[in-house]
Amino acid sequence: MTQLTAITPDAFADHNWQRYTSYSFAAHLHFIPALVTEIAKLVPALPLGFIQREERFQLVALTALQAETNLFVAPDGRWLASYIPAALRGYPFGLARPEGGTEAVLCIDETSGLIVAAGAGEPFFTEEKQPAPGVRDVMTFLARVEHDRTLTQRMVDALQTENLIQPWAVTAKHNGTLVQVDGIYRIDEAALNGLDEAAWQMLRRSGALPVAYAQLFSMNQINLLEQASSQQTQLRTAPPPIPQRQAPNLKELGLGLGQDDTLHFGW
User: How far apart are CA 129 and CA 29, in angstroms?
Assistant: First the structure.
């Protein structure tokens, strides 16, 4: 279970961190939050859908139809899809807002196994107790992800306002029998095509139309889940490949920090 802890000079003075080399930390995620800024790369790689969180919907990439399963993480931890969602690439770091606070605090998952003793890995801080270069890269990346997450949610909210999100009748095989999978939603294409001019223009101005069409186009990729399941069976009976795929360099993640984005440590 993820256990995020705020990174402060006092708490982490005697520790360093290591970059992940395995995606095993995502092996239990059957959906992953998706960003509008990456949908062009997601559509060919994974099916997109919506899940409901309280009264709102969230855009996600589907990696399995069974809970606690990710068909795109190999038994040896390699990522098998053609694109890695941005939500995974900041690991083991994350952002959190203290109760009653308004500013995001940089945190790390203490259960990741990637916190090491000083002298190994990379430092959290410089001698002047400022964020080390690698940590600054993480801060920049996570701030951009958070910015894009907020942007994406506004677009999804616009689609929900026009009642364009409906249950997706997906079936999956379980013990040789087809069963209905609940809790996944899709765009109602007929309702989208039937919008009046005012609603259409509202969605166009909000930027939500690309999200709607991307989800519809990606629905054919649901077949990738069956292919990935077959691949998982083959991988479990074959010798593990060498070497493992390495985690990307954060400087090459393709996301930048806007002038209005701020991120602070928890001290």
Answer: 35
| 3-class SS of residue 228 | helix
Starting at the earlier edge strand, list the strands of the sheet with 15-17. Answer: 115-117, 15-17, 122-123
Per-residue pLDDT of the chain (267 residues; tens, 9 = 90+): 678 999 999 999 899 999 999 999 999 999 999 999 999 999 999 999 999 999 999 999 999 999 999 999 999 999 999 999 999 999 999 999 887 777 889 999 999 999 999 999 999 999 999 999 999 999 999 999 999 999 999 999 999 999 999 999 998 776 677 878 999 999 999 999 999 999 999 999 999 999 999 999 999 999 999 999 999 999 998 776 565 555 555 445 444 434 444 344 344
Interatomic CA distance for residues 261 and 147, integer angstroms: 8
In a domain, 160, yes or no: yes
Q: What is the span of the domain harbouring residue 117? A: 4-235
- 255 lies in some domain: no
| 36/51 Cα distance (integer angstroms) | 16
Q: Which residue has the tokens 């770091």?
A: 93
User: How far lies 54's CA from each of 51, 57, 58, 75, 216, in Å?
Assistant: 10, 8, 10, 33, 23
The residue count of the chain comes to 267
Whether 261 is in a domain gets the answer no
Q: Please tell me the distance from the alpha carbon of residue 235 to that of residue 223, in angstroms, as a whole number.
A: 19
How many domains does one find in the chain?
1
* 240 found inside a domain: no
Residue 60: phi and psi, rounded to 5, are -140, 155
Alpha helices (runs of H) in 73-208, residue ranges in sequence order: 133-161, 189-193, 197-206
